[in-house]
Amino acid sequence: MRTVYVNGDYLPETEAKVSIFDRAFLMADGVYEVTSVLGGKLIDFPGHLARLERSLNELDMKKPAAFDDLLEIHRELVRLNGIEDGLIYLQVTRGSDGDRDFVFPDAETTEPTLVMFTQSKPGLADSPQAKTGLKIISIDDLRWGRRDIKTVQLLYPSMGKMMAKKAGCDDAWMVEDGFVTEGTSNNAYIVKDGKIITRELSNDILHGITRAAVLKFANEAQMVVEERPFTIDEAKQADEGFVTSASAFVMPVVEIDGTALGGGTPGPVATRLREIYLEESLKAAV
Ligand code: PDD
Questions:
Q1: Which of 63, 73, 132, 240 is most buried, taking the most CB atoms under 10 A from its CB?
Q2: What fold, for 129-284?
Q3: What is the pLDDT of residues 66-104, one digit of tens each?
Q4: Domains of the chain by residue range
Q5: Which residue's alpha carbon is at the smallest distance from atom 2 of ligand 1?
Q6: Mapped to the 3 state alphabet, what secondary structure does 135-187 carry?
Q7: pTM of the prediction?
Q8: SS3 198
């Protein structure tokens, strides 16, 4: 049984409790982070903490703990659960003042809820999917307009994954005003004539921590990066596609709406970026 963390306590998962009046339960009034663990160490941890701080600020939500303490809690959960490879999920909510109301509760008297748990994923970095690549469908982006805030409103992304599954595919890229925003739980890229193309940062997409690291490594490796929107038609003509996220790292995309990219196998740029990302981020792991 897992040991999880709730508001200061390490507990068996079956004993962890949050109020039914918690704002995240009633209103999706919460933000989260997912950090990967490789070899018992946290990948890109400072980036995830910085984005958590930004999400909290954007929603006028209180910090649940000092950020040094969050690192210690992450490490303690890795230790208590013997995690070698896997994920740590962190969620902060606006808490509960014991009733339901659209108006935010008084932040002076209502403490945020902090929940963290681990997911063990042995061999996370050796996923067989990295060798075969993902098949993607395109769907309309029906999410709200502040996708830069990592909120727990994940119903539409979940529906998108189910639409992909129903179509015999692995994931979906979302499209708004004719252009790809991002994947249901990852940032989206295409490669054409050696150039890496990905949508620029704005409120339309999550500012991926893996994205930031991968683009930095791509620049350092003298690869050309173009940050601009692209359409599904352009993506279908691309040489390669890939996605990035804390749980998938760099994952090749080999098919979009039934059209194979390149030869329908993972391309050299995605494959190389995955290698560089894993190598460099392991070196910087804490
Ligand atoms: N998802 N875009 C969306 C919509 C996401 O949900 C995620 C991450 C990303 C990639 O961000 P990062 O590189 O910081 O993980 C982009 C996480 C992994 C999840 O919901 O499980």
A1: 240
A2: D-amino Acid Aminotransferase; Chain A, domain 2 (3.20.10)
A3: 888 999 999 999 999 999 999 999 999 999 999 999 999
A4: 3-124, 129-284
A5: 186
A6: EEEEEECCCCCCCCCCECCCHHHHHHHHHHHHCCCCEEEEEECCEEEEECCCE
A7: 0.97
A8: strand
Residue-wise pLDDT for 265-277, tens only, equals 999 999 999 999 9
The pLDDT tens digits of the residues spanning 151-205 come to 999 999 999 999 999 999 999 999 999 999 999 999 999 999 999 999 999 999 9
- DSSP structural state of residue 258: T
Q: How close is the Cα of 186 to the center of ligand 1, in Å? A: 5
Phi, psi of 57 (to 5 degrees): -60, -45
Q: Give the architecture-level CATH label for domain 3-124.
A: 2-Layer Sandwich (3.30)
CB of 204 sitting under 6 A from ligand 1: no
Tokens 């049984």 belong to residue: 1
Q: What is the DSSP string of 20-76?
A: TT-HHHHH--EEEEEEEEETTEESSHHHHHHHHHHHHHHTT---SS-HHHHHHHHHH
**3-state helix vs strand vs coil in the chain, percent to 5:** 30, 30, 40
Over residues 10-62, the pLDDT tens digits come to 999 999 999 999 999 999 999 999 999 999 999 999 999 999 999 999 999 99
Q: Is the CB of 206 under 6 A from ligand 1?
A: yes
- DSSP state at residue 111: P
Asked whether the domain spanning 129-284 has the same topology as the one spanning 3-124, the reply is no
185 C-alpha to ligand 1 centroid (Å): 5
Q: Around Cβ 175, how many Cβ atoms within 10 Å?
A: 17
Q: Decide: 105 and 23 in contact? Cβ < 8 Å.
A: yes
